[in-house]
């Protein structure tokens, strides 16, 4: 598995293909502290107004803040809105 | 997300309330099954409410069982739910149908007649001619007989060389073009001279019949005889005797000048060059219209000068090579005596 991943990483670097497509690694986009889009997440572990925990292939994302809500979930994208105060990645 | 709202309204969506130990698991199951949810909100009683498209609602029972959650519907929105209400409004539906009907009916008529051509002839006469052929605003499109109309108009306006009637939408366009009228040719048996149509300097003269009166390099006036059809006697001392009159013909090429000048209009100090250019362009266009077809343009000369009133003038001279000979009939005489010797 590790070897396969290395090959893919090399391939994406050589061919300039975005890594999140080939390697299925999460990609996070944050708009100020109010909005957050995470691609390639694998599941929601916990959801409440001030804490969201997401499972990804590279560990757990722990997002805390206030008045947080999930705006949309699709098969490979999740969008969070609210006042984000802390992002922690536990791998 | 906002941009999708309209589409979501068209397709319809429901608001569901997810109750259970772990509402997150329902969200994960949805994700795994490729269903999207939006506006997922936390309620105070640890339940979660979310919006779901109508399409995915069909599978909700299966998903709820998988995730061990209870699902409650708390609202439904969108067009599919309003079907009944809309169908109930008879006059609304009737209005839509009537407006579509009016549109379709009005599309069957001609609303406007347009004329399109390279050169203008009397528009009013053409429009009247079209009207007589049944083409005018307010006529049914299907009643127009295009070919018949084209033929009739061609016949009644001989100066038109090409006519095309086009029906595009509710507009009928008559495209026509005006050609050059052929020169008046004298029949072969009428005796004639060849005279200059325009002043110029002769370049070459070729006579197939008739007496050459000019030589290359000579400048001629308008109307001057170039090739004469009057055949004179060549016997010395008898040169003034007219032997016979013939239909002369030949080619006379000459260098001619077309010239025009004008005062430059809208002369601004700032944009003098552009103003001059525009005037020159206008003059040139005017001259090119004057120059007959088949003329070789040798040189275009543009000059500008100031006249007495200190106004800017431009002068455009176009130097051409063209055939200047035209026929002009002459009085016919019966040959009184047969030519004694071969005159040519």
Give an account of the 3D structure:
The complex is a heterodimer of chains A (91) and B (344). Chain A has helices at residues 2-15, 19-22; strands spanning 27-31, 35-39, 41-48, 51-56, 59-73, 77-90. With 91 residues, chain A is α+β, with helices and mostly antiparallel strands. In chain A, strands 1-2-6-5-4-3 form a 6-stranded antiparallel sheet, with no helix packed on it. The mean pLDDT of chain A is 88. Chain B starts with a helix and ends in a 15-residue tail after the last strand. Chain B is built from 9 helices and 18 strands. The radius of gyration of chain B is 43 Å and the shape is elongated. In chain B, strands 11-9-15-17-16 form a 5-stranded antiparallel sheet, with helices on one face. In chain B, strands 2-3-1-4 form a 4-stranded antiparallel sheet. Chain B has 344 residues and is of the alpha+beta class. Chain A binds chain B through residues 43-49, 69-75, 79, and chain B through 1, 23-24, 27-28, 30-31, 34, 36-42, 46, 48. Strand 5 of chain A pairs antiparallel with strand 2 (37-42) of chain B.
Question: Topology of this protein?
Answer:
The complex is a heterodimer of chains A (91) and B (344).
Chain A: H1 2-15, H2 19-22, E1 27-31, E2 35-39, E3 41-48, E4 51-56, E5 59-73, E6 77-90
Antiparallel strand pairs in A: 1-2, 2-6, 3-4, 4-5, 5-6
Chain B: H1 5-11, E1 13-19, H2 23-32, E2 37-42, E3 48-53, H3 54-57, H4 60-67, E4 70-77, H5 79-88, H6 90-106, E5 112-117, H7 123-132, H8 146-156, E6 160-168, E7 171-178, E8 192-196, E9 200-209, E10 211-212, E11 219-220, E12 225-228, E13 230-232, E14 242-245, E15 249-263, H9 272-290, E16 296-306, E17 312-323, E18 325-329
Parallel strand pairs in B: 5-7
Antiparallel strand pairs in B: 1-3, 1-4, 2-3, 6-7, 8-12, 8-18, 9-11, 9-15, 10-12, 13-14, 15-17, 16-17
Helix pairs in contact in B: 2-4
């Amino acid at each position: 598995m590790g070897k396969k991943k290395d090959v893919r990483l090399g391939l994406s670097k050589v061919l300039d293909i975005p890594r999140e497509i080939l390697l299925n690694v999460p990609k996070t986009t944050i708009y100020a502290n109010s909005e957050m889009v995470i691609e390639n997440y694998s599941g929601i572990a916990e959801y409440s107004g001030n804490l969201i925990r997401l499972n990804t292939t590279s560990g757990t994302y722990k997002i805390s803040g206030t008045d947080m809500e999930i705006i949309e979930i699709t098969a490979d994208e999740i969008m969070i809105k609210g006042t984000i105060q802390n992002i922690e990645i536990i791998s | 997300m906002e941009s999708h709202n309209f589409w979501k309204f068209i397709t319809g969506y429901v608001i569901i309330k997810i109750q259970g130990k772990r509402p997150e698991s329902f969200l994960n199951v949805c994700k795994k099954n490729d269903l999207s949810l939006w506006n997922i909100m936390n309620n105070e009683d640890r339940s979660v409410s979310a919006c779901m498209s109508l399409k995915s609602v069909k599978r909700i029972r299966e998903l709820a069982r998988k995730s061990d959650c209870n699902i409650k519907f708390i609202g439904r929105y969108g067009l599919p739910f309003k079907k009944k209400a809309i169908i109930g409004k008879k006059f609304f539906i009737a209005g839509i149908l009537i407006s579509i009907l009016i549109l379709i009916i009005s599309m069957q008529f001609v609303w406007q007649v347009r004329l399109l051509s390279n050169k203008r002839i009397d528009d009013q006469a053409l429009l009247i001619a079209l009207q007589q052929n049944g083409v005018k605003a307010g006529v049914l499109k299907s009643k127009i007989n295009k070919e018949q109309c084209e033929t009739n108009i061609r016949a009644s306006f001989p100066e038109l060389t090409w006519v095309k009637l086009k029906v595009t939408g509710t507009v009928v366009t008559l495209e026509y073009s005006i050609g050059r009228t052929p020169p008046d040719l004298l029949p072969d048996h009428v005796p004639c001279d060849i005279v200059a149509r325009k002043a110029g300097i002769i370049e070459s003269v070729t006579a197939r019949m008739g007496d050459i009166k000019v030589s290359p390099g000579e400048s001629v006036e308008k109307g001057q005889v170039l090739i004469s059809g009057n055949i004179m006697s060549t016997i010395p001392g008898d040169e003034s005797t007219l032997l016979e009159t013939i239909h002369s013909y030949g080619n006379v090429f000459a260098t001619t000048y077309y010239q025009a000048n004008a005062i430059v209009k809208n002369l601004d100090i700032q944009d003098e060059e552009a103003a001059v250019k525009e005037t020159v362009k206008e003059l040139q266009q005017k001259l090119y219209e004057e120059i007959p077809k088949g003329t070789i343009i040798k040189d275009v000369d543009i000059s500008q000068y100031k006249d007495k009133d200190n106004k800017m003038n431009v002068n455009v001279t176009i130097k051409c090579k063209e055939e200047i000979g035209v026929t002009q009939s002459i009085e016919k005489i019966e040959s009184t005596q047969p030519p004694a010797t071969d005159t040519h």
